[in-house]
Amino acid sequence: MKILLLGATGSIGTSACNCIRRFPEKFELVGLSSHKNAPKLIDLAREFNPASVCIGAATETSALRAATPGKTRVFNGNQGLEDIVNETEFDVLLNALVGAVGLRPTVAALKRNKRVALANKESLVIGGEYIKGLLENGMGRLAPVDSEHSAILQCMGGECVSDIESLILTASGGPFREAGPESFNSITPRQALNHPTWSMGPKITIDSATLINKGFEVIEAHYLFHVPYKKIRVLIHPQSIVHSMVEYHDGAVIAQMGVPDMELPIQLALSFPDRLPLQGKRLDLAAISTLTFYEPDFNRFPCLRLCLQAAEIGGTAPVVVNAANEIAVKLFLDGVIGYDRIPYILEEALAAHAPVSVDGLETIERVDAAVRAHILKRFG
Known about the structure:
The chain has 16 helices and eleven strands. It has 380 residues and is an alpha/beta fold. It has a domain at 2-144: NAD(P)-binding Rossmann-like Domain (Rossmann fold, 3-Layer(aba) Sandwich), CATH 3.40.50. The strands form two sheets. It has a seven-stranded parallel sheet with strand order 4-3-2-1-5-6-7, sandwiched between helices. Strands 9-8-10-11 form a four-stranded mixed sheet, with helices on one face. It is globular, with a radius of gyration of 20 Å. The mean pLDDT is 94.
């Protein structure tokens, strides 16, 4: 199976490379991308000898071309991400890009009738209605990579969607699950990046701290499993052992459990429906002894509330919340705004927007660009 991996140098990409190394007789890495980590991308290109590579930073293109194997094609920039999908022969696209930039590569792969192993939340958050139309017209397939959606897929086990009472997405709660909102104005980027369970990139780690990532995952679950929003719930689960649950209309609740390790859902997304062996730490419930769950507090996690509100509004409202969040998180990490200003920026952007239906990628990108420009002008 030929794999095209976008976001190869991030945490998901690194774990995906481990899965591919584990089964060289099953997987061939034919394409790679990195936003700006050219040295690591060069190392991977020399190891896997891919047909294509793409670097986000155009200034690194010449160095990348000089250092990669002679037959490897080199692309760059956002357009390069779409081009590498269209011009590389592959079976599965593993989209581990961060942000709205991941939408067009996902769409390009689906239009080529390819399977997309999706770790890029934004593809469905901002483009869910558009992608739904592609899938309904027989273009490509989606396989979830997020641990929560992989868990739901495993818990469903071929059961009918009509039998589902609810999907229950679990969240660790991040580093501030017990902190009072009155303390949020003093939170530093270093504190927010100290996630208690998972090792992720900075943007996704902040999204986990604000819990907006769980709102994004609700939107993803809606499109992945064709379940209405009213049947999708979020529970805080600090131990991160139960990765999600499916409740059926007869009262049965099926949970998928395991130690926190992204290689399992990544490997399953690549091999599905086959389940390949994976060595590593095993779950010891006796040692854990206690699993706890509780409802999220919207006073502590207003970004989750705003994301769920945008999901219910529909149209371009999720585009607005995603764009505002991407810019607000960057401003926070750059020290321009405080942590407590992130939800303020999201709420202001959502309140100022008159949603329209998503009739194509151009509408999504027009709204996305306008929101980003407004926030940067006002707060940047």
